[in-house]
Amino acid sequence: MSETPEPVIQFRSDVTxxxxxxxxxxxxxxxxxxxxxxGEQSLTAAARDEGAARADGADGLLPRDxxxxxxxxxxxxxxxFEHNSMTFYVxxxxxxxxxxxxxxxxxYNEESGRYRELRPVFYxxxxxxxxxxxxxxGAYEFLPGDDKQHALVDETVRGASARAFGDYQEMLxxxxxxxxxxxxxxxxxxxxxxxxxxxxxxxxxxxxxxxxEGAAFPSFPxxxxxxxxxxxxxxxxxxxxxxxxxxxxxxxxxP
Length: 255
Known about the structure:
Strand order of the largest sheet: 2-3-8-4
Mean pLDDT: 91
Structural class: alpha+beta
Number of helices: 9
CATH architecture: 2-Layer Sandwich
Number of domains: 1
Oligomer: single chain
Largest sheet: 4 strands, antiparallel
CATH class: Alpha Beta
Order of helices and strands: EEHHHEHEEEEHHEHHH
CATH topology: Gyrase A, domain 2
Radius of gyration: 22 Å
Distance between the termini: 63 Å
């Protein structure tokens, strides 16, 4: 009887973000906003906008539509941006997920180390990841490390991850429950989750978790969650290009 081969430990320096499903378009902002002045007539307008989008294979927006979205963004009328939904699948280190869940404006479902054996996939910083923190709280700056520091980080992270996963496997083999054995695993092990949010929530997330020149307010995100945010923004910009352009034009301030 052959023995089960030991899992091969993998190291990654990236994150995965995929769109699972969405009900999100620029037209969603328009019908939600126009109910305030059109009442029940906004239903007819919404059906017309949706029909035009399907016929054109695009949003089919008129200049006045674009103007309305820009007005709503500029004057921070936020609720019309809530009538849509996007669900993302995210793979990232667990420490990134803990930062995600500071944002209580989304719904999360994450894989559980109580119910499944976790895979031996660990995050290790890429060579271009800044390592040196300087400054004071609220005004930190991160600078590149030297070759020696990068080598130290790489070797230490890989070694600690391998040792921890070996201990985890040893406990599982001895019959220890998964929820107990997982306690030795480090924060750089990968997990996966679904994240569902609307455009207003996403704009709030992006305003805090991306650092972009031209933003009205500076943000200092940890690089790993910014990697997720950048991928989410690219997907959203494709779904709602006019809304995204207005967000950028108004200094990346969530309405």
